[in-house]
Amino acid sequence: MRIDLLLLMYNRPEHTLSTLEGLAANGIAHVKAYLDYSDKPEVIENQKQILDIVHNFKGLNITLTQRTEKFGLAKSVRTAMSDAFADGADAAILLEDDCVLRPGGYEFFRQGLTELKDNKKIRSLCGYLFPNCNFIFDPEADLLLLNRFSTWGWATWADRWQQYEVDLAKVVSLFDTIGFSIEDFSTDMAILSKSEKFLKGQVDIWSVSWILLHYLTSTFAVYPKEAVIDNIGLDGSGANCEDTEVFKTGKSNAVINQYNWKGLNYFLENEEIIKEFMAINGLKTYPKP
Hints:
Blueprint: E1 3-9, H1 13-25, E2 30-35, H2 41-56, E3 61-66, H3 72-86, E4 91-96, E5 99-101, H4 105-115, E6 122-126, E7 143-146, E8 154-157, H5 158-161, H6 168-178, H7 182-185, H8 187-192, H9 196-199, H10 207-216, E9 220-224, E10 229-231, H11 269-281
Parallel strand pairs: 1-2, 1-4, 2-3, 6-9
Antiparallel strand pairs: 4-8, 5-10, 6-8, 7-9
Helix pairs in contact: 1-2, 6-10
C-alpha cells in the first residue's frame, strides 16, 4: 500500500530541523512538506531559515509546496490529507513541525496502517501517548485502544478520512439526533462544542470534528504503549498550545520492531482515565472558547 508522509511547517526553524532529523533517522525516503504563507516580517525571516534547511537537508527526499496565500492550520491539515488521497495514497501520516519521530517510530505507523487497513473499527493511529495516565494494559500488550484521538503525530486511511466533516455544528447536531451527550464522553470537547466561535468555524482548529467522530461512530485510535513521538512544541512557540509541562513525555530508548496487532483489547476504564486527564488539561491545547 502507498503511505504518504506529510509535514506541515510555518514558523519554527529549529523545530523543523529536529523533525526532519527524526524522519531521516527512521530511514524514511520521501516527505511531502508544506510551508504556509505569511506576510509578517518576523515569520518571513524564520521561513527563510526553514527553506535553507529544507533545500540543504541530506538523506531525505523532500517535495516542498509553498503556499502563496495564508491557509492556517485547519486548512493546511485538510488540504494536505485530501490532496494525498486524491493523488492515490492509500494512507497518510501527518506531522506538524514539532512532532519528532522517535527511533523505530515509523514502524509503528507502517505496520499499523498495513495490518489494520481492513478493520473499520480503527479510525486513526496516534504516535503520542498521554503521560501519567496509568492506562490499563493486558500483560505483554504493546498497544492501546482509545476513542480519544490525539493530533500530535497521527495517521489514517483514505476511506476513513472521507468521513471527515468540516462543519463542527453538523457533527454536534448528530450527537443530538442519536441522543448522545458529548459531556458523557469528553468534558473538554463538550465545552468547545458549545462555543459559538468554534461552531461557526471562526477558530483555526480542525481536530474537534475528528475527535468527536471517533466517539460518534464508536471507532478507535490505536496508540503505542511507548510514545513514538516527542512533542517539542510545548514551549509556547505554537499557535494554540500554552507553555506547559503536563504533556511532556519522558525519554525512551525502547524500540519495538514488531507490534502485536492481533492483541487489541479494549478497556472501558481507560476512557474514564483519559476523560479525567483531559478535563483538567485538554483546553490547554486550544484557543479559548
